[in-house]
Design a protein that fits this description.
alpha/beta; 21% strand; binds 2-succinylbenzoate; binds magnesium ion
Length: 369
């Protein structure tokens, strides 16, 4: 197979409610979609990156330029036997994994469509349904956070993750736990703390949390290794795991006991699959993280989450929590048991709503050989 054309689009999509983390607030997404063409077929990818370089160094604009000027041209016209070759083809690019991953994921969808199989089958997925949790953004008051927890528990989600930051942590979690002593709950700090906050982080141990996600610096493993033995609660690394090598180092050093996998952060399905396999072989639970994806990114997350290593509920939830209307049909829906059945259709398993994408597009660019 050869990719003969790549279409890049940026769409603007307002969230139904703003989403706030310790690094900032998002009200409207700027999302890059990648469509790769080969011999009359096409595959779709979504760049899972933020608008600003606050989660990691990448952002919408940097990804647009890296895909158009580097990752795209490195893939165009090359003979491809398997999508697993894409990371090799773009390996000269250092970092910028979200940009590279958008192209890689699109080629996986294309290959699944070429073979006429669901993407999960091509990836080696085994789970018939995936377990879902929600990630709840910061709120100014405990009452507002409680109302959100109540809604999502009622909807059936299996795990509730609460964003925390200094000043919105122990007190808020205590309030939530008083109302909901038994639900599966975790917290995510998005790197808002340092080793100077050990005493505060230790206080979270009394709340029986499933995990504390990325408490310390985004690029750190060493300090997390110093922190984990001081906590009863498992640390889950998100930002600082960029691939299987980071997981090996983090686990060797005892920096975490759980790993969050995001397709973009690890440069796509090829590396995500290696990472989940590595963890599965060592009984380290992984789960699928989210980056406020629209339907194409969400569908890729669902496909990936059918792999055997994904044993904990992911941040993969219903389209309606994010958008008035998604860019795929049907929208992603979650059962009252907090699960998403794996799609049966070929490729991504959802129909891409090209009309809606066209209407939402603010720029389009095509590169070809
Ligand atoms: O750390 O998991 C994170 C959103 C943007 C950037 C980072 C993160 C998140 C989320 C949202 O937690 C997960 C989702 O619902 O997509
Ligand atoms: Mg996180």
């Amino acid at each position: 197979m050869k990719v003969d054309r790549i279409e890049l689009r940026e769409i603007r999509l307002p969230l139904v409610a703003p989403f706030e983390t310790s690094f900032g607030r998002t009200s409207e997404r700027r999302i890059i979609l990648v469509k790769v063409y080969s011999e009359g077929l096409a595959g779709w990818g979504e760049c899972t990156v933020g608008e600003k370089p606050f989660y990691n160094h990448e952002y919408t604009e940097s990804c647009w330029s890296v895909i158009r000027d580097f990752a795209g041209p490195m893939v165009l016209g090359r003979e491809i036997e398997s999508p697993e070759q894409i990371p090799q083809l773009t390996r000269q690019i250092r970092g910028n994994k979200m940009a590279r991953g958008a192209v890689e994921c699109a080629v996986w969808d294309l290959e699944a469509r070429r073979q006429g199989v669901p993407l999960w089958k091509l990836l080696g997925g085994v789970q018939e349904e995936i377990n879902c949790g929600v990630s709840l953004g910061l709120e100014d008051s405990d009452a507002a956070m409680l109302a959100k927890v109540e809604k999502e528990v009622a909807a059936g989600y299996q795990r509730i993750k609460i964003k925390i930051k200094p000043g919105r942590d122990v007190g808020m979690i205590r309030t939530l736990r008083r109302e909901y002593p038994d639900i599966v709950m975790s917290v995510d700090a998005n790197s808002a703390y340092t080793l100077g906050n050990v005493e505060l982080l230790k206080q979270l141990d009394e709340f029986n949390l499933l995990m504390i996600e990325q408490p310390l610096s985004y690029d750190d493993i060493i300090d997390h290794a110093a922190l984990q033995p001081q906590l009863a609660t498992a640390i889950c690394l998100d930002e600082s795991i960029l691939g299987v090598d980071d997981a090996r180092k983090a686990l060797q050093l005892g920096a975490c006991r759980i790993i969050n996998i995001k397709l973009g952060r690890v440069s796509g399905h090829t590396e995500a699959r290696k990472l989940q396999q590595y963890c599965f072989d060592r009984n380290v639970p992984v789960w699928c993280g989210g980056m406020l994806e629209a339907g194409i990114g969400r569908a890729h997350n669902i496909q990936m989450s059918t792999l055997p290593g994904f044993v904990l509920p992911g941040d993969v939830s219903a389209s309606k929590r994010y958008w008035t209307e998604d860019i795929i049909t049907p929208p992603v829906e979650v059962t009252s048991r907090g699960t998403i059945p794996r799609p049966t259709g070929i490729g991504l398993g959802y129909e891409v709503n090209e009309k809606r994408i066209e209407a939402l597009s603010v720029r389009t660019e095509t590169i070809s050989k």
